[in-house]
Amino acid sequence: MHAMQLDAPGTPLHAVERPLPEPGPGEVRIRVTACGVCRTDLHVADGDIHGHLPIIPGHEIVGRVEALGPGVTDFALGQRVGVPWLGHTCGTCPYCTSARENLCDTPQFTGFTRDGGFATHCLADAHFCFALPDAFDDLHAAPLLCAGLIGYRSYRMAGDAPVLGLYGFGAAAHILAQLAVWQGRKVFAFTREGDTAAQAFAREIGCAWAGDSTETPPEPLDAAILFAPVGALVPQALKAVKKGGRVVCGGIHMSDIPAFPYADLWEERSILSVANLTRQDGTEFLALAAEAGIRTHVTPMPLAQANEALERLRKGEVEGALVLVC
């Protein structure tokens, strides 16, 4: 197999060749056809979050089952599957036994603590793989596996919000905006200052308004979701939400949140974070994505250009999502 491997934070990925891995009990080996490039991959590469090294990043994996480990009955050889960020849980801790496996005490994460999909092949726990709707080809399915899934968990945590603000209009926001518009919500998109291209893109896919993240929206928000990893946006979003409104932080990493007046939080406003996803989130969202006719906007790049893809993401030069193809 061929892969792009990270040896140390802040260093470029480099090409490696390894023997094909053999699946253990409960695992499948997947021939990867597409893997989305997520901001979390950038946090891993830059050392913002620390896990096992060396590591093959990538956790928006689409491919075909090539080998079955002992005990696997959920999938067949040749079947198309998707592999998300949450790669394994213990199943026995208080979180796993109370339908909160996303908070497992001893989890494994694809492309972070176990090798991921910036490769021609990968191993995955069959219990944490998803069958993918036929409505999406491999390329367009890939961003659903994290931008979509964890974005959907953030969306759920935002509650019943008729007016929803999305801060950071990248891979996750462009998917969730379509779902929210389909469900009859009014969506306001907040982008980097002066990013008129992203603002035009947001309006094109149905957002009622798009502007800089420093701007006041046309009307108060019922909830806001922050996909941009910028702590200064938290007090900004608090000022934009109504009494009782929620500000949901949807990323795994964020810069420090600056101090803000208690008055901005008062009147039962709340700030909450989202951690990982559950398999139930995945089952629900993938069905909804097909039903709603969501269309992911993707730019394909060869696997060997993984470093270029990460740099484009780092510079904010991406409309929709980047996907590595093998």
Describe, in plain words, how this protein is organized in 3D.
- The chain is of the alpha/beta class.
- The protein has helices at 39-46, 138-141, 149-157, 171-182, 196-204, 233-240, 262-265, 279-292, 306-314, and strands spanning 2-5, 14-17, 27-37, 61-68, 80-83, 86-88, 108-109, 121-125, 130-131, 163-167, 186-191, 209-212, 221-226, 241-249, 270-273, 298-302, 321-325.
- Strands 3, 4, 5, 8, 9, 16 and 17 form a seven-stranded mixed beta sheet that branches. Strands 12-11-10-13-14-15 form a six-stranded parallel beta sheet, sandwiched between helices.
- Helix 3 (149-157) crosses helix 4 (171-182) and helix 3 packs across helix 8.
- The longest helix is centred in the last third of the chain and has 14 residues, at 279-292.
- The relative contact order is 0.17.
Strand content is 25-35%
Our count of helices gives: 9
Largest beta-sheet details: 7 strands, mixed
What structural category do the secondary elements indicate?
Answer: alpha/beta
Determine the N-to-C terminus distance. Answer: 11 Å
Q: What is the CA-based Rg, rounded? A: 19 Å
The secondary-structure element order is EEEHEEEEEEHHEHEHEEHEHEHEHE
Tell me how many strands there are.
17
* Assembly state of the chains shown: single chain
The chain-level mean pLDDT equals 96
| Outline | globular
Q: Approximately how much helix is present in the residues? A: 10-25%
Low-pLDDT stretches: none
